[in-house]
Amino acid sequence: MVHVEKALTEIHGAYTMINQQFVKNALEPFEYVNREDDLGEEGLRKAKESYRPVMLYERYVASEK
Predict the structure, then answer these.
(1) What is the pLDDT of residues 42-65, one digit of tens each?
(2) Distances from the Cα of 51 to the Cαs of 60, 61, 62, 63, in angstroms?
(3) Is residue 16 helix, strand or coil?
(4) Which CATH architecture describes the domain 1-65?
C-alpha cells in the first residue's frame, strides 16, 4: 500500500518513475498494488487512472440514523 509520494513537479515523469521503481524493487512477490483513495481530487484521480487499474471499489459513507 502506498500512502505518500513526493516529487518535484517540474521534473516531467518523476511520479511515474517513483511508482515504477517502487513496484520493481519493493513489490516483486505481489501481483497488485493498492494505490489508495483519490480523496475526490480530480488530478489525483486522473493520475491513478493512467496506471490502468484492474479493480475499483465504490466509495461508501456510513452514518448513524
Answers:
(1) 988 888 888 888 888 887 889 998
(2) 23, 26, 29, 32
(3) helix
(4) 3-Layer(aba) Sandwich (3.40)
